[in-house]
Amino acid sequence: MDDLDATRLNALAAKLAPGRDDRVSDLARLSGGASQETWEFRLGDARFILRRAPGGTLERKSGAGLSIEAAVIAAVAAHAVPVPNVRHVLSPEDGLGLGFVVDFVEGETIARKLIRDPAFADVRTHLAADLGRILAAIHNVPVGALPPLRRLGPRATLDALREALDACGAGRPVFELALRWLRDRAPPEPQTLSLVHGDFRLGNLMVSAEGVRAVLDWELVHLGDPMEDLGWLCATPWRFGALEKPVGGVGMREDLFEAYGQVDARRATWWEILASLRWGIICAGMAPLFASGIDRSVERAMIARRASESEIDLLRLMQEHA
Q: SS3 of 101, please?
């Protein structure tokens, strides 16, 4: 199923807008979302977003799964985490594949605009603190309120990176060194596991001129060390060129940590370094996809070349924290 069947989508109207006779209009696939399809459509004056597996059926093995993602979003909404309202999880009877529908949320996700556009100048003054409070809310969601999730502490994460690096094929000495360096300095496994978003950064946040409207893209959600989210947010690749502001290119760690509450800065730094390795391996993994002909897009090739940026970043970080 390469295209979305608008006729079948129309059949959802009664579930999304009970008591009304609206038909789907303005159906369009949105850009972005490298691993999932994102579609926008209208029913009358209401706007919706459909998040769907590629082709309706292909789900990443590393992801939680779209039905789990929807269940987590619904669960965290009850615990002061800003998220879109989940309207419907697709079933086999819907004939649209795997996915779910949420209410449209107005705002901006493009990092370069959030970091540099004058329209967001005011929100940038408090965004780092806002993100700290949101992460604290996420990490405090009771595990009992959540669906079953994967458990990924430091050791399991390192094992997953080992497997991903092996799958890249070509030798990567800097990545091998970084993996060994991180394993030698791995923190103890957390005594209790918390809800971890897994990809908390600009690009996965809907932001208005007032603040964060919604946390998006929960596909990598799992139970793990909460410091993982803090480290990922502060990693060099997610500063989008604003290197002097470690919190996503918009703020300082001090503001993030103070708003978050109790932070183990040493653990957060370990996860921040691991984030550079993780992103580097993701980039390197694009090369065999391009070379094999599976995906010959320019975007795929450009991402593959960015592995060298992570190598430089890792060498610097290992020296700084030797």
A: strand
Fold of 6-103: Phosphorylase Kinase; domain 1 (3.30.200)
- Tell me how crowded residue 112 is: count the other CB atoms within 10 A of its CB: 13
Q: Is the pTM of this model over 0.90?
A: yes
Nearest to 87 by CA among 108, 68, 98, 73: 73
Helix (H, G, I), strand (E, B) or coil at 24: strand
* Identity of the residue numbered 94: D
Instruction: Give yes or no for a contact between 114 and 108, defined as CB atoms under 8 angstroms apart.
Output: yes
Token pair for 246: 């470690």
Could you tell me the maximum CA-CA distance found in the chain, to the nearest angstrom? 65
**293-308 pLDDT, tens digit each:** 665 666 667 777 888 9
Domain 111-320 has CATH 3.40.1190.20: no
Q: What is the DSSP letter of 55?
A: G
Give residue 93's identity as a one-letter amino acid code. Answer: E
Q: 267-286 pLDDT, tens per residue?
A: 999 999 999 999 999 888 87
